[in-house]
Amino acid sequence: MANPAAQETAAKTRIITHMNNDHQDSLVRLLEHFCHLPSFSARNARLTDITYDNITIQTGNGFGSYSHSIAILPAMTSWADARGKLVALDAAATAGLQRSNITVKKYAKPTGFMAVIFFLVVFTFVAFSRPANFEPGSWLYDYVWAYLPGFAQSRHRMQPLALFLMFGIHGGETAWMIKSRLGKHTVPTFSRLWWTWVLSCFFEGTGTFVRFDRIVEEETRRKEKLKH
Predict the structure, then answer these.
(1) pLDDT tens digits along 145-156
(2) How many of the other CB atoms lie within 10 Å of CB of 192?
(3) To which H or E segment does residue 176 belong?
(4) What are phi and psi of 49, to 5 degrees?
(5) Could you give the angle at the alpha carbon of 101 between the alpha carbons of 94 and 188, nearest 5°?
C-alpha cells in the first residue's frame, strides 16, 4: 500500500522541480507583482516550498538570501489543483505588470548581413572613440586611413560631434529596447541575458530588434501549437 506521506512529498518535489526548471520566469513575475520586488532582485528566484495555501520563493545574491511568501487563495484541496492555481497566479501577475505571456530566454547573435553591419558599427565606434585614431602614428591611420588621407582629415575634425551623435542615437535605441522589449518579455534586469541584448543593441541597433521580435514570433507559434 502506498505511503500517503511519501506521495505528498513526491508530488511537492515534482512541482518545485518543474517550476524551477521550466517556469523560473513565472516566479520572477510573481515576486515583481505580489511582493513588489524589482526585476533585478527577483532575477534568481527559486521555488523552495509549496503548501495548499502558500508558496515560498527564495531570492539571493552574494550578500545573502531572502524568502518571500505568496498566498494561494482560495487554498488548494489537493496537489491536482497546483497547475491551475500557479497558472492563475502567473496570469494575474502578467496582467498586473502589463507584460507579455511570452518570455525571451535566449540571445540570437547576428549572422550574415546583420553580422557585417554589427562589425562595421563596432569598427566605427572604435575609430571615432578618440581623435588620435585619425592621426599618423595610430594603428588605424597607418593601416587604414593612410590610404585615405583626405577622409581621415575630415573625420578628425568631426570626431567629437560624430561620437556624441553616435552615443545619443544608439543610447536612445538601447533605452527603447529595454522599455519596449526586455521588460515586456521578462528578461531580468542586469542578468547576463539582459546585458547581452543591451550591449548588442547599443552597438548594432535595428538588427537587434529584428532578431528579438523573431524569437517572440517563434515562441508565440510554439505556444499556439501546444494548445491544439
Answers:
(1) 787 888 888 888
(2) 9
(3) helix 149-177
(4) -160, 150
(5) 75
Say whether 89 sits in a helix, a strand or coil. Answer: helix
% of the chain exceeding 90 in pLDDT: 62
d(CA 215, CA 103): 9
Largest CA distance in the chain: 89
What is the CB neighbour count within 10 angstroms for residue 64?
7
**Residues contacting residue 92 through CB under 8 Å, at least 6 positions apart:** 33
Please report, for the chain, how many H helices and E strands are present, in that order: 9, 3
Contact 156, 7 (CB under 8 A): no
Q: What pTM, to 2 d.p., does this model score?
A: 0.81
Q: Would you say residue 1 has pLDDT above 60?
A: no
Cis upstream peptide for 188 (omega within 30°)? no
Tens of pLDDT along 45-101?
Answer: 999 999 999 999 999 876 788 999 999 999 999 999 999 999 999 999 999 999 999
CA distances for 163 relative to 80, 112, 117, 138, 197, angstroms? 59, 26, 18, 18, 22
